[in-house]
Specification:
Blueprint (H helix, E strand, L loop, with lengths): L1 E5 L6 H14 L3 E4 L18 H7 L1 H4 L5 E3 L7 H6 L7 E6 L2 E6 L18 E4 L6 E5 L2 E5 L13 E6 L2 E6 L4 E5 L5
Parallel strand pairs: 1-2, 2-3, 5-6, 6-8
Antiparallel strand pairs: 1-9, 4-5, 7-8, 9-10, 10-11
Amino acid sequence: MRLLIASDLHGSLESLRFLLGQARELQPDLLVLLGDLVYHGPRNPLPESYNTPTVLKEMADLNALPCPITAVRGNCDAEVDLALLPFPVTENAWINADGLRIFASHGHHLPERPPLPGMPQDTVILRGHTHVPRGETLDGLHFWNPGSLSLPKGGSPRSYGLCEDGAFRVLDTHGREVLRHQPGGA
């Protein structure tokens, strides 16, 4: 199963169009959006090509993809933004893919490190929020973050994630692999 994963678009039309192109090219089984889709947020600079009216209009193009969308709410996703999106957005979601149990969340309410009370061992914690790519295992939990397509932080490039055959990869917008992580170390 192939998951295409993006987070923290923050109203960047260029980033949305890039994501649409990748989705058409890669033909994922599921598109996963990890929040902060429309608004740039009070602590972030305006992303390149910031254009919320057009972003909201072109978000409908995601519905034309031949794959379903799982979208979770970010800390910058206001009620008014959610009401204008053409697909449902939940607080978090469980995804089963290639034998992995994945908890998708924007991540702003989760600790960066264990313990995560009530979270079963060997769960993948798929999150955005930090704008920094991540793939590591700590105390039996796997932490994945695709980074940000519009406002990368920590010196990281603009990036997105792919989960395929149980492995998570983060790629920059030029297709270069930023990191790879596979639970169990295989």
